[in-house]
Amino acid sequence: MSEDILYDQSHIGFLEDLWGEGFLSPGGQDEVARVLDGVDLTGAKVLDIGCGSGAIAVLMVRAYGAAHVTGIDVEDPVCAAARARATAAGLAGQITINKVTPGPFPYPDQSFDVVFSKDSIIHIPDKEALAAEVFRVLKSGGVFAASDWLRAHDGAPSPEMAHYIALEALDFAMASPARYRAALAAAGLADVALVDRSPWYAEVAAAELRELSGPRRAEWEARHGAEFIAHQIETWTAMVPVVQSGEHCPHHIRGRKPG
Ligand SMILES: C[S@@+](CC[C@H](N)C(=O)[O-])C[C@H]1O[C@@H](n2cnc3c(N)ncnc32)[C@H](O)[C@@H]1O
After folding, report:
1. Closest to 121 (Cα-Cα) out of 197, 76, 172, 170
2. Domain for residue 224, yes or no?
């Protein structure tokens, strides 16, 4: 059976055009810096869950001094892009990209000093199992530092939110801050903290919509195709109000394995 690729070349190309070379999520280096604020990566062994096309893995070695980053992802195109990026950066010895199947991580207990993730856990429906795996592979005293796209509550989405999620055509499995908090605490993580980033992303997403639909629309269409851009504009048009209302609420997430 052939694998359905969600982050295919056209998607990767569009998102990197919007969000920066090697980034498949918003905010670039500045937002990564905020996710990692106060986390010392010097000499650390890092796991990057959902590494995408790899700019953040390169950044964590180059700019933050991580000794080694293991990036995991579930699709071949992003893994290939991340490997190529690590090699081009001369960091193939310090960055390993593993294609994995969803589920338990293929690493022994206590393998990593830091588990990082940027806007990827949204694709993992079982937040409780994910939290247990994060706890298992962290060394004692290790840190979990992530960003993810959450939604305000775990009840039925509003019609506006359901419309937006359907337009994304990605395997979104959004959950509430309360569910993340409970999952991480139940797994054993201490100092669990969540920070709502929806005020920031509401502004950024509105600017993105203006960029795609404004005077430069023809340039976006020339690079990515008119039909593709029309679909993205429809998606962003649906997304901006649910981010502004806070029902779609990106968060930063922290926890620490005691010890
Ligand atoms: C929005 S992109 C973010 C990529 C990268 N973290 C970044 O910020 O540029 C989400 C990524 O999660 C990956 N993903 C989806 N399901 C996953 C899973 N079960 N485990 C790990 N990664 C997954 C996707 O293939 C995609 O590369």
Report:
1. 172
2. no
Domain range for 185: 9-149+173-201+250-256
Question: Which tokens hold the place of 236?
Answer: 């962003």
Q: Give the span between the Cα atoms of 126 and 171, in whole angstroms.
A: 13
Distances, alpha carbon 186 to alpha carbons 130, 135, 252, 257, in Å: 11, 10, 19, 12
Distance 25 CA to ligand 1 centre (A): 9
- Specify the 3-state DSSP secondary structure of 44: coil
pLDDT in tens, 208-244: 999 999 999 999 999 999 999 999 999 999 999 999 9
Q: State residue 1's pLDDT score.
A: 36
Q: Which atom of ligand 1 sits closest to the CA of residue 72?
A: 21
Q: To which residue do tokens 């950024």 refer?
A: 204
For the chain, the domain total comes to 1
Is the beta carbon of 232 within 6 A of some atom in ligand 1? no
Mark the ranges of the chain whose per-residue pLDDT is less than 50: 1-2
